[in-house]
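Lab notebook, bench 4. Still working through the backlog of constructs that have no structural model yet. Next entry is a single chain of 154 residues. Request: give me the structure tokens for it.
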Amino acid sequence: MSEQIYLLLHPTFGVLGIIAAVWVFVATFNVTHENVGRIRLAAKTSAVMIWLAFIVAGYFYVVYYGGDKAIIKAGPWPWAHSFFMENKEHMFFMVLVLATFLPIATSGPVDSNRGVRKVVMWSAAFVVLIGLAMEGAGAIIGMGVKVALLAQMG
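Model written out:
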């Protein structure tokens, strides 16, 4: 696979994981006995998608990102790497842990226990919020490459 495919797969899996976490949040907010199975499915989907985003990103980072990093750091937006990528590398583990926790949390009595609902909703909300922040950081990193390449051209 080419570098561009990884650059498409990584945010696609991430966004799908975020969307599934939104689904968990909304369905848990409106929980009924009938939708507990869908909440659990959405929680598992979120975890799988976030893990796929992590695996694809890890491979991309090891194989390809070194060149992009050098381009960014030599360009007019070196902070795109030094601030946003550095933060993204650390924030991701919070999202990974929370997304992995969602199926565990939803295995409890979501429909009959207010405490379980709160934990599920807060976990899903943080997956969404941190995930969206990471999506934005990824856009800035990508723009850092583009700005640097444009600066090299003229």
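Notes after review: The two ends are 31 Å apart (CA to CA). Helices lie at 3-29, 36-63, 65-74, 79-105, 114-153. Flag for follow-up if needed.
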